[in-house]
Amino acid sequence: MAVAHRIYAKALFEAAREQGTVDRIAEEVSSLARALDDVPALDRFLRNPEVDAPEKAAVLGEIASDADELTRNFLRLLVEKGRAGELREVAAELQALVARAENRLTVELETAQELSEEEARAIVERIERATGRTVEATRSVDPSLIGGVVLRIGSFRADGSVRGRLERLRHELATTTG
Fold it and tell me: Is 69 left (phi over 0), alpha (psi -120 to 50) or beta?
């Protein structure tokens, strides 16, 4: 993530914490970020440098008319600073700050086959013991992994899959000079 995203998210997080509305603000900003996925035209509009700030502010103001005043002010600030098109990135960083403050860790487990509940629970428990945090895991299946697991935590990726091991071995063999 860009440094600017962290700065904006941290400022919003601190302001929301001061007024005791972290959960509400984080949900509102996340909801707006999800709207960018649901309505690609809105995302293009906010990212378009040819659209002037007052137009962007008016659209966001209308969309967020029921939002907390802090959220509305934050959106106006993003527009004024030319960062309205980065709302999704700021929202992701804000969610990471909230999770960190709540001692939560969001992970994605990608496996070649669907994990049983017991297998998934065992992996989650190992991560919780190792990190000392509460883990919220999502799971996905990618048969091309052949076996093993790929673990994603934010931008960190640990590839323990058979495919990953084979690729590393192939790379090692190709770069080894004999």
Answer: alpha
Cα 29 from Cα 36, distance rounded (Å): 11
The span from the CA of 121 to the CA of 98, in Å, is 23
Confidence of residue 56 (pLDDT cuts 50, 70, 90): very high
Please enumerate in sequence order all residues whose Cβ is within 8 A of that of 173, keeping only pairs 6 or more positions apart, or say none.
Answer: none
For residues 94 and 9, the answer to whether their CB atoms sit within 8 Å is yes
Phi, psi for 157 (deg, rounded to 5): -135, 120
Separation between Cα atoms, residue 43 and residue 7, nearest integer Å: 21
**What's the rounded Cα separation, in Å, for the pair 78 and 85?**
8
Token digits for 142?
């990618």
**pTM for this one?**
0.70
Summarised one tens digit per residue, pLDDT across range 130-148 is 989 999 999 999 999 999 9
Structural domains in the chain, CATH included, are: 3-99 (1.10.520.20), 104-175 (no CATH)
- For residues 54 and 108, what is the distance between their CA atoms, to the nearest angstrom? 39
Q: Which two tokens stand for residue 94?
A: 């804000």
The pair of three-digit structure tokens given for residue 87, joined into one six-digit string: 């709302």
